[in-house]
Each structure stands twice: as C-alpha cells, then as structure tokens.
Amino acid sequence: MFCTTIKGERVTLRPGxxxxxxxxxxxxxxxxxxxxxxxxxxxxxxAEVEWLRxxxxxxxxxxxxxxxxxxxxxxxxxxxxxxxxxxxxxGAWIGDKAxxxxxLMKEAGQLARDFFFMKFNLRxxxxxxxxxxxxxxxxxxxxxxREVGRFRDEHFxxxxxxxxxxxxxxxxxxxxxxQQG
Length: 181
Description:
Number of domains: 1
Low-confidence stretches: none
Mean pLDDT: 93
C-alpha cells in the first residue's frame, strides 16, 4: 500500500498511481539504472502497471514514489513486512542518473525510515545492496544501517558475480541517531 505524502526539503514522497507507470518505465529503461536492482531485464509498461496496482493493495508493503521538482525520479518503500515480528525490508532506487550522488536518496531514506519507525513502531528495518553499489552503501550507512552479513556471489552483473550485502537498522540505533540530531 502507498503511504500518505511526506514533503522533505528537496524531495517529496507521495503515493503512486497507475499514471506513474510510463515515467517509471522510462527511468528503468537504462541498463545502468537496473544494474544494481533485482532484475536486469527491461521492464514493460504492463509489468509496471501491475506492480503499481499490487502495491496499492498489498497489506505487507508500504511506500512511495520519490518526486523531485514535481516529477517522479524513483521509488522507496518497505516490502515483506512481518507485522508479527515487527520488521520489513527497505528497497529504493533513483532512475535519473543526473540526480545520482546529490543526497536525494539520503533525504528520501531518512524520511521513509523515520516514518516507518514512528508510524509502525518497528523493531528493525532490513536493507541491502549489491556489492559495488557504493551510492546505496553510503545512503544506507548515513541512515544508520549497519552491515550484518553477505550472501556471496548472489548476483551476476556485467560478467562477474557480486555479493549481496545485508544491512539492518535497529530501533535503538535510530532513536540514538534522532537524539544526536
């Protein structure tokens, strides 16, 4: 399900609609953008519409479209939320390469992280990235996530095997970060 709109200093997190499908497909049309995502295959408009529809009703997902200057640039949200054990897995991407390394994901990640801990009283948020995605590593570390393990040779990218690096952020660590300002 999509969450309510959150306005940050530079990005806005807002609910997605089927009308966002074409813009998201265009962002995902670049193989370099998909390189560190779960799939390397091109995404069809039909598949993206179905993904958006599923997210509108799935009780174990929560998330948003990331908007910058009134246009969609990516997505962020929790998947596989385990309500009984009180955790979910964070996923996020920005598809406009001109906007990479400008701190937009850091801001989106912090907005989402704070919302999830405050609204859903989670114990922890899981995360992760494909080894070599230094921007994702930095964004997660800046949001307070710590590496907790690796799945060796989990992904095949550009002719080589890469590890999946498992990350997590515990509520206690998030509370400490908020107290530090």
